[in-house]
Amino acid sequence: MDSDLQRPPVSSWLLISSAALAFPALMCRSALARKAMLLPVAGIALYIATVGMSIGDYVMAGALTAHVFAIFDFLALTDAHLELRLADQAAPSAGSLPFFERAKWALRLLTSPRLIGWANEPKNGSNPPRPAETSRIRFAAKQIIYITFHLLNMKVLSITMTWHLPRNGLDLASMGCGLASMGWGWRLMDILRYGAIASTGLSVVHRALT
User: Fold this and answer.
1) Where does the sequence pass through the membrane (predicted)?
2) What is the largest CA-CA distance in the chain?
3) Neighbours of 90 (CB within 10 A)
4) CA 66 – CA 60 distance, rounded (Å)
5) Which residues contact residue 7 at a Cβ distance below 8 angstroms, ignoring those fewer than 6 apart?
6) Measured between alpha carbons, how far is 14 from 3 in angstroms, rounded to an integer?
7) 80 with 26: CB under 8 angstroms?
8) Rounded to whole angstroms, what are the CA distances from 128 to 1, 122, 124?
9) What is the Cα gyration radius of the chain?
């Protein structure tokens, strides 16, 4: 096999540039500045999504997808400085930390995918409200509706995963449509579909058992 097929055409510095940009973004005290830093990260991700890579790069596509989604959460969906804090953090927010402490805070956030050592409970210590009481029949009917919807969703996802494949769907190499020629765009979409199918399947099992 040609050795060029084993090397991704995307430079290594480009693959790690999203993390390199997220680090100074998380150090910014301004929430608006942190959100603005998401634009170059999104641009890099879109550029990589248009480039074909070597065989077996589903792992890299999955890692990049998870990483970009995490950065999107830290910079746009969540006010990380106010809502995310270390378990032993005395300061009320990361924005009030000194420069080097804030840099260490950002580095630990980017290197802690499971947020081990971080406080996840509400700041005020209050518990979420309990759900309203409901009858068993209504609960069972709601579970059946959710399960039906999830199964339909899994079927739709399974169908859409084959749209970009050849008609026979088996001998991709002979059709000239191997993984190396599918492009990052399709691979990223497949990763999202695989994740959605797995998550939906777990939800179906959970609801069926409850």
Assistant:
1) 12-29, 36-53
2) 64
3) 8
4) 10
5) 54
6) 21
7) yes
8) 57, 9, 11
9) 22
pLDDT band at 131 (very low <50, low <70, confident <90, very high): low
Tokens of 131: 């759900």
Q: How far is CA 160 from CA 24, 65, 187, 188, 191, in A?
A: 38, 19, 13, 13, 12
User: What does pTM read for this prediction?
Assistant: 0.57
Please report which helix (H) or strand (E) contains residue 64, including its range. Answer: helix 58-72
Token output for 188: 């990223």
d(CA 191, CA 62): 6
pLDDT in tens, 9-50: 667 787 788 888 889 999 888 888 898 988 998 888 877 777
DSSP H or E stretch at residue 119 = strand 118-119
Question: What is the rounded distance in angstroms from the CA atom of residue 80 to the CA atom of residue 26?
Answer: 8
CA distance 195 to 106: 27
The domain limits of the chain are 9-122, 134-210
The 3-state DSSP class for residue 85 equals: strand
The one-letter amino acid at 31: A
Interior angle at CA 10, CA 4 and CA 16, nearest 5:
135
